[in-house]
Design brief:
There is one protein chain. The protein is of the alpha/beta class and 498 residues long. The protein has helices at 27-38, 48-51, 70-80, 95-108, 119-123, 125-128, 143-154, 198-204, 235-239, 248-262, 278-290, 310-318, 333-340, 346-358, 376-388, 406-414, 440-461, 463-476, 478-492; strands at residues 5-10, 13-16, 42-47, 56-58, 63-66, 84-88, 113-117, 136-138, 165-169, 172-176, 217-220, 223-224, 244-245, 266-269, 296-303, 321-329, 362-369, 393-398. Helix 1 packs across helix 7 (143-154) and helix 3 (70-80) packs across helix 4 (95-108). The chain is globular, with a radius of gyration of 22 Å. The protein starts with a strand and ends in a 6-residue tail after the last helix. The model has no long low-confidence stretch (mean pLDDT 92).
């Protein structure tokens, strides 16, 4: 079978009605598209969210789906007439949209090869291969495996030798485990942003952090993999349990490309470990200064606290950093070390926050509540600690047992999943764990109560800081903020925390 045309799709998104939408470049398919283009394939990228972010339809009483309608997606597939369709699935909650897409593709032409990738199918390849409309699943980092798959489909069809692949043989699912990761990330081409409507992303301006200073912002990643062992994290399974950095020069070349070709004025680094190698990080930041990029930048995905010191923080500020997000996770030291297994000393956190503020940066922090073994008192300590830090924003998630994580294994062994738990529809803002200490509804109510109190307090106590962070969001998307407030009020009223 000859393959010449490949279409890569990021599906419409399912969301709890009331939460903020998000619209960022899907770097996964953008990297893959660049690799395939370099091998001579004709590639089409379709990000359903950016193509029609205002289109919404109800999924059930609590959820909406937003993005391009399936009717329009079908039209675009027919217009391009691909030989292969690849679909990414980052989150469990999006898997049902993936199933609708694979069915749609096979309804157009059964000969079209369907390939699914992303964190969810990578963690559950056997279960996801039960979908008769899915031909292959690429497990984990996909650039080399996907390309190898296309060559085998056209040639020998020896799928057993492809690293990180799930397929069928004689009606049975075969899973080749992921054992190889790309060692030289500099060898990868830059993401194929030219295949995406970049001006639409700038116009919509709904980045991951919901915070930006210039609408011409772009996300990028300078490394892959993490050596951490956090109980709730799926990153290590997907990218590997080892830090793999790009060189400072390669990163600076991509930044130059973003500035010159797209007029980007702000960067959002979405690494898991941007500052893990201090010397490398210092070279990147100094290079941004030396090349006079004059960019603003932030770290919406979190920084490893144990990697930071004042010298590095000062260099971050000099190179344009205005906002950092610290992965604190808990306000109780025992929870951090014994349950989450994260090497953070809370005694350092307050000093780091003060240092960032001394250098004029906004500071957010991420926390997680509702872990097995955590008590109500320890959850309260997390809220109290967040208040003591005098932050410019907090992000608090209910512990989510994602497939492939240690947390998922613990919950399965101890039978802690809530009634009706569905591993194909997991979401971060819903309690999925039930212990003797708390019920899912209690966690949801307590979190909503705290977030209302926190944001109101930030507005009243520090209005300038509040508007510095949220003014552009308020101006461009006021309806989303109103819906979010009502969402929190509704959840807060359901259960009284005891």
């Amino acid at each position: 079978m000859k393959i010449s045309k490949v279409m890569l799709i990021s599906p419409p998104m399912t969301l709890l009605n009331g939460l903020f939408k998000n619209c960022t470049v899907p770097l996964g398919i953008a990297y893959l598209g660049a690799v395939l283009e370099g091998e001579g394939y004709e590639v089409k990228l379709l990000d359903a969210v950016v193509e029609d972010i205002n289109h919404e339809e109800p999924v059930d009483q609590e959820h909406i789906r937003y993005g391009l309608s399936f009717e329009e997606i079908e039209k675009r597939i027919r217009d391009f007439s691909p030989d292969v369709v690849g679909i990414t699935c980052l989150f469990s909650l999006q898997y049902r949209n993936v199933l609708l897409l694979t069915k749609l593709v096979k309804g157009i032409d059964k000969k079209i090869i369907t390939v699914v990738g992303g964190e969810h199918p990578s963690a559950l390849p056997v279960a996801c291969m039960q979908d008769k409309n899915t031909d292959f699943i690429v497990i984990g980092e996909g650039e080399h495996s996907f390309l190898h798959l296309l060559k085998e489909v056209q040639g020998g069809k020896n799928f057993f030798k492809i690293d990180g692949l799930a397929f069928r043989k004689n009606g049975k699912t075969v899973v080749n485990p992921k054992t190889k990761f790309i060692e030289n990330l500099d060898a990868l081409p830059f993401p194929a942003r030219h295949l995406l409507p970049m001006e639409k992303y700038f116009s919509i301006s709904l980045p991951q952090s919901l915070t930006y200073q210039d609408k011409r912002h772009a996300c990028l990643t300078t490394s892959r993999g993490c050596s951490g062992k956090c109980v709730f994290c799926a990153t290590t399974k997907f990218w590997g349990n080892r830090f793999r950095p790009r060189s400072p020069e390669n990163v600076l070349q991509e930044i130059q490309h973003l500035v010159e070709d797209y007029g980007v004025k702000e960067l959002h680094f979405i690494d898991d470990n941007l500052t893990l190698d201090k010397e490398r990080a210092m070279k990147i930041f100094q290079g941004m200064i030396d090349r006079k990029f004059n960019l603003k930048w932030c770290v919406p995905q979190g920084l490893a606290i144990w990697t930071l010191d004042e010298e590095l923080i000062k260099k971050m500020q000099e190179s344009g950093c205005y906002l950092v997000d610290l992965g604190v996770e808990s306000g109780n030291q025992d929870v951090l070390w014994k349950i989450i297994k994260k090497p953070i000393n809370l005694k350092r956190v307050k000093g780091l926050v003060k240092t960032f503020k001394k250098h004029g940066m906004l500071v957010k922090a991420c926390f997680v509540i509702g872990l097995p073994g955590e008590t109500k008192e320890q959850i309260r300590q997390t809220f109290d600690f967040a208040d003591e830090l005098d932050l410019d924003g907090v992000s608090i998630a209910i512990a989510t047992p994602l497939p492939g994580t240690e947390l998922f294994r613990i919950c399965k062994e101890k039978k802690l999943f809530r009634c009706g738990f569905d591993e194909n529809a997991i979401e971060y803002y819903v309690g999925n764990i039930e212990t003797d200490e708390f019920k899912p509804e209690e966690l949801q109510s307590m979190l909503s109560h705290y977030m209302l109190k926190y944001n109101l307090g930030l507005l009243l106590k520090h209005p300038l800081r509040f508007f510095k962070r949220f003014s552009k969001l308020l101006f461009r998307h006021p309806a989303m903020l109103i819906k979010y407030i009502f969402f929190l009020l509704k959840r807060r009223s359901k259960v009284i925390w005891k």
